[in-house]
Amino acid sequence: PGVRLPVSRQSMGEALDALIARDVRLLFLFTAGMPGNYNHRSQFRRTFPRAAKHPALTHAFLPEADHLFATHASRSRVIQIVRDWVLRVAVRLLPLTLLADAVVQG
């Protein structure tokens, strides 16, 4: 319990392709806090090029952050990224009638 076995690149690529095919919106945040796992900005794009260029998937690399987001600056940055992504995805998915109502009421 609580320990996961590594997933192969092929399995991860297949899982990403399946999610994207269902139009699931995905946000991946990577930090430099685990040097052996993720250590440069283009690593995700090079590993999963098809998924990385798909508009349903957003990924960001935060080299200044560790995996706990221990500093105030890194926590603020991750909150900003997630908030902006949620707003972008939510606006895209809302029915136009709800958007029109929000504009009229706003």
Provide an overview of this structure.
- The chain has a two-stranded parallel sheet with strand order 1-2.
- The protein has five helices and two strands.
- With 106 residues, it is mostly helical.
- It is 51% helix and 11% strand.
- It has helices spanning 9-21, 43-47, 49-52, 72-93, 96-105; strands spanning 26-31, 57-62.
Low-confidence stretches: none
Spatial order of strands in the largest sheet: 1-2
Structural class: mainly alpha
Continuous helix count:
5
What form results from the Cα inertia axes?
globular
Number of strands: 2
Instruction: Report the mean per-residue pLDDT as an integer.
Output: 84
User: Radius of gyration over alpha carbons?
Assistant: 17 Å
Q: What amount of the residues lies in strands?
A: 5-15%
Major sheet details: 2 strands, parallel
Helix content: 40-55%
Could you tell me how far the N terminus lies from the C terminus, measured between alpha carbons in angstroms?
A: 48 Å
Features of this protein?
single chain; 106 residues; mainly alpha; two-stranded parallel ribbon; 2 strands; 51% helix
Give the SSE map.
Blueprint: H1 9-21, E1 26-31, H2 43-47, H3 49-52, E2 57-62, H4 72-93, H5 96-105
